[in-house]
Amino acid sequence: MCIGIPMRVIESGPGYAHCEGLGQTREVDTLLVGDVAPGTWLLVFLDSAREILSEVDAHRIGKAVQAVAQVMGGGITATDTAAIDGLFADLVDREPPKPPSLLARERSTSNKGD
């Protein structure tokens, strides 16, 4: 399984950046996202930046990755909902929004019966 992790750019050059995140430091390929300035947050898969993130999104993703790591490492169990809910605070007690493509499909399906 490949999980993207949020990493903050420390230093960058053409096609690469030195980044830190979740206790790791890596040299990351930035060819897919272009040149990035120090302080920029990136979503990194296998040492390659795939997306530029906002700081808020970087922290949300980081907490989700922590939750997965803790459950997989036995630090918390899947039934320890209080510990898991704390790491997914932005998702607790709300219905996730449907993507525009699904909303359009639902509208077109409901209109066919009219």
First CA to last CA: what distance? 45 Å
Low-confidence stretches: none
Please provide the count of β strands: 5
Task: Kindly estimate the percentage of residues that lie in beta strands according to DSSP.
Answer: 25-35%
Secondary-structure element pattern, one letter each: EEEEEHHH
CATH topological fold name: SH3 type barrels
Main beta-sheet strand count, sense and barrel state: 5 strands, antiparallel
Rg measurement, Å: 18 Å
* Category by helix and strand content: alpha+beta
CATH architecture: Roll
Q: Which CATH first-tier class would you pick? A: Mainly Beta
* Total tally of structural domains: 1
Quickly count the helices: 3
Helicity range of the residues? 25-40%
Shape: flat
Read across the widest sheet, the strand sequence of neighbours is: 3-2-1-4-5
Q: Name the average pLDDT.
A: 86
Ordered list of secondary-structure elements with their pairings:
Layout: E1 5-13, E2 16-21, E3 24-29, E4 41-45, E5 48-53, H1 55-73, H2 81-87, H3 100-112
Antiparallel strand pairs: 1-2, 1-4, 2-3, 4-5
Features:
114 residues, flat, SH3 type barrels, alpha+beta, single chain, 5 strands
Describe the overall structure:
- It contains 3 helices and 5 strands.
- With about 110 residues, it is α+β, with helices and mostly antiparallel strands.
- The protein has a single domain (about 5-85), classed as SH3 type barrels (Roll), CATH 2.30.30.140.
Quick synopsis:
The chain is an alpha+beta fold and 114 residues long.
